[in-house]
Amino acid sequence: MAKSSEVVHGYPHLDTVRAALTALYRRLSPDGVLSYAPSVLPADVAFSDQDDLHLGAQRVARALVLHFRLPDARMIVSFREMEHAASVELTSGPEYFIELNDRFRTHRRDIGAALAHEITHVLLHRLDLAFPGTRDNEILTDTATTYLGAGWLLLDAFREDRVSSQKLGYLTPEEFGYVLTKRALAFDEDPAPWFTSPQGYTAYTRGRTRALSDARNPPLTTAGWAARHRYAKDRRQALQRTGRTARVQSTDHTGPTGPTGFATEARYAIERGPEGPRVSFPCPTCHQRIRLPVRGRMRARCGLCGTILDCET
After folding, report:
1. What pTM, to 2 d.p., does this model score?
2. Rounded CA gap, 161 and 172, in Å?
3. Cα–Cα distance for residue pair 272/294, rounded to 1 Å
4. How many whole angstroms separate alpha carbon 228 and alpha carbon 160?
């Protein structure tokens, strides 16, 4: 988990984040995902300067182990000089060794954030869930930490001013806010009162705006007028094209200077196949692609996460 003096903002890892959400639902099932409620509460990971360093770290680690349903895992926490914020030795258990950067000796309120990421590594190791490549696997870990209830700690550790900055984790602050909002919607939670970092809270609100926009894309009935008009145009083009697999793919045309400020990305695809036209689009909860016949108003259920969606195909 890297600490950098130059904080990257925006959504450069969004495709991987969405793939991570899909992978979590596939590996854990919807009921398994929802079993990680409620989130880790501030009182469970509170760490004051008066607490004994090692006993306090063990206490916080224990709280996170219980939250992540790792009853057989014993975390042994130590501190040393190192380049990264923390590291964990992944073995078959039952003991896991976590090393924290020496800087946490004097930045104790962020120990919970560092431990949350490393203990999620242990969880994913036991679930045999990983992405190829270090970068994507770390993004998976940050996404899982956040969606399963402890990632608000990582976003709250984000602080930035004119002369210095601190960010833990591999997601950008806005991406943490995006995933945190996805969890808030799925678990009916409001993490806003937990933030002590003004910069972390601001990043959460920006990520929230981005996450809420996922539920306003066609063919969902919650899409705005302009998006629905563009969908109707794309649908006509798909139906007019010849060939068994004529295809029209839509993108979000609102670029950096548009009203949303979001980068261009594929949202839905209309295909004309042998059984008639079909539209595919990502579920706004788990991002598994859903395929429906193009035949008007209907209600669909995501086959992965079970979300019920009102659509106008």
Report:
1. 0.91
2. 16
3. 9
4. 39
**CB–CB of 3/167 below 8 Å?**
yes
**Would you list the DSSP string of 60-102?**
HHHHHHHHTT-TT-EEEEEEE--SSSEEEE--SSSEEEEEEEG
Percent of the chain with pLDDT strictly greater than 90? 76
Question: Phi-psi region for residue 240, left (φ > 0), alpha (ψ -120 to 50) or beta?
Answer: alpha
Report the distance separating Cα 110 and Cα 154, nearest Å: 8
Query: Residue 164 pLDDT > 90, yes or no?
Result: no
Which tokens is 45 given? 């990971």
Pick 95 or 300 by higher pLDDT: 300
State the Cα–Cα distance between residues 39 and 91, nearest whole angstrom: 26
Please name the helix (run of DSSP H) or strand (run of DSSP E) that holds residue 281, with its range, or none: strand 276-282
Band of the pLDDT at 21, cuts 50, 70, 90?
very high
What are 26-84's pLDDT values in tens digits? 999 999 999 999 999 999 999 988 899 999 999 999 999 999 999 878 899 999 999 99
CA–CA distances in Å: residue 310 to residues 125, 214, 269, 306: 37, 14, 18, 13
Give the Cα separation of 169 and 283 in Å (integer): 26
* Residues 149, 40 contacting (CB under 8 angstroms): yes
> How far from 75 is each of 42, 80, 94, 97, 149, CA to CA, in Å?
20, 16, 9, 6, 19
pLDDT at 261 over 50: no
Q: Identify which of 33, 291, 280, 9 has the alpha carbon closest to the alpha carbon of residue 171.
A: 9
**Beta carbons within 10 angstroms of residue 311's beta carbon:** 19
Closest to 153 (Cα-Cα) out of 164, 167, 134: 167
Looking at residues 300-308, what average pLDDT do you find? 98
